[in-house]
Write a structure and sequence with these properties.
Elements lengths: L2 H31 L4 H13 L2 H7 L3 H21 L13 H15 L6 H25 L3 E4 L2 E4 H21 L6 H15 L1
Antiparallel strand pairs: 1-2
Amino acid sequence: MSLAETFRTDLVAMLISALYVMGVIALAEVLRKRGMAREVTRKVVHLGIGMWIVPTYMLFQNRIWAALPAAGFVLLNAAAWNFGFFRSMEGERRNVGVILFPLSTALAIWFFWLPPWSVVGVAAILVLCWGDAAGALVGRRFGRTQYTVFDHQRSLEGSMAMFSASLLAIVAAFMVFGAPVDGGVLVAALITAAIATV
């Protein structure tokens, strides 16, 4: 593929990515205005945008262009967080997660762009979006057994959900990219899911 063709392909991919992300945010805003809790709409955004990591690796040719939308949303989200735009992206307590998540995505794309490391970048972001969302939503709804880690109160039910979702995310990433899921991968996935949960 020529340089001009690569540029056109990545430009179209970036436009599609921006439209998709704005669509997810718009959907979450509609849901919030219709009475859905902010914590839930924040997870809708978290999951919806996080899942886009898979098409990112399939649509883009160059890692600079691939990381650019996520890097752009670091700035956009920082402004939104500071001035209170896009309330659906915030939970009941304001936190910098809306800034750290796209930053993590941009870094994952930048450092794990080329095969065979692509699957690592995808798995990392899927763990962030699946694990965090599952842990928060299950813990909030069904959390009964409370415990504390580093001064943060958590629930056993939420932690189990986060561990399971993180493990599933890692295995799914390997399967989507056609990487073998052998014993070594499963052990690494178990350890990674446990670390992510803690």
